[in-house]
Automatic annotation (TrEMBL):
Gene3D superfamilies: MetI-like. The gene is phnE. The chain crosses the membrane at residues 63-87, 222-248. It holds the Pfam family BPD_transp_1. This is Phosphonate ABC transporter, permease protein PhnE. PROSITE patterns: ABC_TM1. Its main location: membrane.
Length: 253
């Protein structure tokens, strides 16, 4: 019992040290935290009234953003599902493929989408296609890693049952594991889709088109009320995706 208490104390001390170092590294300040009058005043003066006449144009741009996010994440999911079986310890063929695939996924995942976007802009030029490629590549690595963890935590009973009736190892794994983890796969997919919408906004600022590019243009021209209109549409877009994801997941469960 005494040993347990000492361990908790050590963990608490370490956590305290990390928090203190993080606060120093991020220049956290309590006094400045409560001095946000300028920000509130800026929003009140510049963000209202909204430019409602821009809504038709911004809705058109939001379709580009949605297209980039949806195509990038859905095609990534199609690649990530088979890749996750290679990257999961219980379904990988050997330790070489397991560690090799995990290393590859970590390597790709460590590169932010904006870096991929800047690289692809050199090859395919400015526009939504560069953003789409960046979102696709990053999400393949992220979704494959997340789904691999779901595969590893799946129940082995259904696999053994399928093997006992003559199914091959791979067929048994696919048809026994996928039904178990499918609702969680959908949850991960809709979450990544929501993240991809926000990412495509950032990529739009470097020439990826869509709402992000409009947002950057309004910011550069100091048209803050137009920028606020775009932000409101982004918020509505994310809420719609979140609600839709919840409805689809409930129907699947």
């Amino acid at each position: 019992m005494m040993w347990f208490r000492k361990r908790i104390i050590v963990y608490a001390l370490l956590l305290g040290v990390f928090l203190w170092l993080s606060a120093r590294g991020s220049e956290f300040s309590f006094s400045e935290l409560f001095e946000l009058e300028n920000t509130i005043d800026f929003i009140g003066r510049s963000f209202v009234p909204l430019q409602t006449d821009l809504i038709p144009y911004l809705l058109q741009q939001s379709l580009i953003t949605l297209a980039v996010a949806f195509f990038g994440t859905f095609t990534a999911l199609l690649i990530a599902i088979p890749l996750s079986f290679i990257a999961a310890e219980n379904t990988s063929g050997s330790s070489i493929t397991f560690y090799g695939s995990r290393f590859f996924l970590s390597l790709v995942r460590s590169i932010p989408e904006i870096v991929f976007g800047l690289i692809f802009v050199v090859s395919v030029g400015l526009g939504p296609f560069a953003a789409l490629l960046a979102i696709f590549l990053h999400n393949v690595a992220v979704l494959a890693k997340l789904i691999a963890e779901l595969v590893e935590s799946s129940d082995s009973g259904p696999q053994e049952a399928m093997r006992s009736v003559g199914a091959s190892r791979r067929i048994g794994q696919v048809f026994a594991i996928i039904p178990q983890i499918w609702p969680n796969i959908l949850s991960q997919y809709f979450y990544r889709f929501e993240v991809a919408i926000r990412t495509s906004l950032v990529l739009g600022m470097i020439g990826g088109g869509g709402l992000g590019q409009s947002l950057m243009n309004y910011y550069n021209s100091l048209a803050y009320n137009s920028m606020a209109t775009a932000i409101v549409i982004i918020m509505v877009l994310v809420i719609i995706v979140d609600v839709t994801g919840g409805i689809v997941r409930k129907r699947v469960i």
